[in-house]
Structure formats: C-alpha cells, structure tokens
Design brief:
The chain has about 70 residues and is α/β, with parallel strands linked by helices. Helix content is about 40%, strand content about 15%. Helix 1 links the parallel strand 1 and strand 2. The protein is globular. The protein starts with a strand and ends with a helix.
Length: about 70
C-alpha cells in the first residue's frame, strides 16, 4: 500500500496539488483541523497524522530539534 502524506500548512496548496496530480494521497493540515490549523501545535498534528498512518511532511526544520516533536 503506498504511503499517504500529511502536509503542514507551510508547504502550501501547490505542493499538495502537485503530489495529488502524480497520484499520491495527500491530507493537508487545513483540511483536517478547523481554522486552517492555525492554533494546532506541531506535536498534535504530527501525532494525529501518525495515528492515521500518514507520513508527516513539513519544511519547518526546527521541528526535528524540539523535544516534544522528536518524542512523537
């Protein structure tokens, strides 16, 4: 089964559209959480995506250095 991706807001709609055009299943954070996920902490959306079996994608390089996100 091919992976499904969960995109952080910072990747934008265009990245999601391009992946979808290429046949990938993509879930945008703003489509999953209310208010375009403006108030959703990184650890929450990452944990939610992982619970669904989705691969989280973000261009926020700081996520990989923060303890709360690493523990997910």
């Amino acid at each position: 089964m091919p992976p499904e991706f969960f995109l952080d807001r910072n990747l934008g709609r265009r990245v999601a559209e391009e992946l979808r055009v290429r046949g990938w299943t993509v879930h945008r954070i703003g489509e999953v959480f209310d208010g375009d996920a403006q108030d959703v902490p990184d650890e929450e959306w990452i944990l939610h995506g992982l619970a669904q079996g989705w691969v989280p994608l973000s261009k926020d390089g700081r996520i990989k250095t923060r303890d709360r996100e690493i523990l997910r």
